[in-house]
Design brief:
By secondary structure, the protein is α+β, with helices and mostly antiparallel strands. It has one domain (about 45-160): Rossmann fold. The protein is globular and about 50 Å long. About 45% of the residues lie in helices and about 10% in strands. Strands 3-2-4 form a three-stranded antiparallel beta sheet. Strands 1-5 form a two-stranded parallel ribbon. The protein has helices at about 1-10, 25-35, 55-60, 105-130, 145-160; strands spanning about 45-50, 65, 75, 100, 135-140. A hairpin with a 7-residue loop joins strand 2 and strand 3 (about 75). The chain is built from five helices and five strands; from the N terminus they run ααβαβββαβα. The two termini are about 30 Å apart.
């Protein structure tokens, strides 16, 4: 599936973002094998967003999504957020109600973070050994626009 997606996106763009993949060392090894055999021209950059867990819990617990399956717009109910809906719990795009997913409840987010951290360190250790220059760490405990600017600057510098 990854091979097919890489080929499909490479036909359209020179930069591909794999969000949430690889998650394990086994997946990282499979990706490395695929890149070394079929996609030798792809330069891998691993971006790690550094955010304190308490801030992640706060952000994800404030995330709401449009109930309309054809819309699925994402909003934040954090005070002062640029992603806040204009009207309480109503989608700006289609007017349908917003809801919080079960896995965005604070207790569920804490459990997700435990699982993430269990795999993250092994994955980072793998890349530090196999491809240490591929890792970029960015602070993401600031405004979304600032994080995005940092992301663009660092990723573009890495891929020049």
């Amino acid at each position: 599936m990854i091979e097919q997606s890489l080929q499909e996106y490479l036909d359209k763009s020179s930069v591909i973002i794999l969000d949430g993949y690889p998650r394990t060392v086994a997946q990282a090894r499979q990706l490395a094998q695929l890149l070394n055999t079929k996609f030798k021209n792809i330069k891998l950059t691993l971006v790690r967003f550094d955010v304190p867990d308490d801030l992640l819990i706060e952000r994800l617990s404030a995330r709401y999504i449009c109930k309309n399956q054809n819309c699925q717009a994402v909003y934040s109910l954090l005070s002062g957020s640029q992603q806040a809906p204009k009207h309480d719990l109503i989608c700006d795009k289609c007017g349908q109600p917003l809801y919080r997913r079960e896995d965005d409840q604070p207790a569920a987010v804490k459990e997700r973070l435990k699982m993430y951290h269990a795999y993250e360190q092994d994955l980072l250790n793998y890349y530090r050994t196999e491809n240490p220059h591929a890792i970029i760490s960015l602070s993401a405990d600031k405004a979304l626009a600032d994080v995005f600017e940092d992301f663009k600057t660092h990723v573009m510098a890495q891929n020049v």
